[in-house]
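input
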Amino acid sequence: MIDTHCHILAGIDDGAMNMDISVLMAQMATEDGITRIIATPHIRNHYPTPHDIREATQNLNHRLDQWGVPVSVIPGAEVSMMMDLDSMLTYTINHTPYILIEFPHSYLPLNWKDIFFQLKIRGYRPILAHPERHPDIIRQPKIILDLHEEDVLVQITADSLIGTFGLAAKQCAEYLLKKNVVDIIASDAHSTEDRRPLLSSGIKAAARIIGREKAFSLVTKNPLTVIQGDLLPSFSHV
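output
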């Protein structure tokens, strides 16, 4: 499996506090069946820089090699929608056209539709992180159906499907799965305790809704397509 959303880089954001925790998170991911992790630190006020992320990723991979942890970490970012567009474009996943975008936690910006439009006309492929946990989306999940129709990919959190973020987030995640608008399931892990780098339980829950094959494609085939920079089916007509 591939985890496309993980705050595993040490001391950069509210994820792993130090390198030891980063290694423990990677070990935990391995035991869950994860072989690749996209490091997605929060980007606020242009920090960390793309150079910081590349360097931290290289350092972590070196440490994992030393400890014999069979996980490969890939550079990425979780970009705030409130950033200016030109800066956003420097934070793609693995130097591909894919960008992981996060709404502000408590509201939707007035210009959010235009931001996605501007990204797409420039040739970038936005992925929306954990919409099922956003209060406005929970109230109006059809927003995501319309976005997906316009080629914005949808990434939900595995823990949402097992109720970790509450009943409303769980029901919203299930609704999006049933409507066939979920492209990726990720951990959004921050530690080895409260928010862990695990996918298997969430995938089992998803499989009960959409079937095992479709569920596993959300943590295998689709994430690999993103890492390689190829087109997912949602973008096939672009």
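quick obs: Residues 162 and 202 are 6 Å apart (CA to CA).
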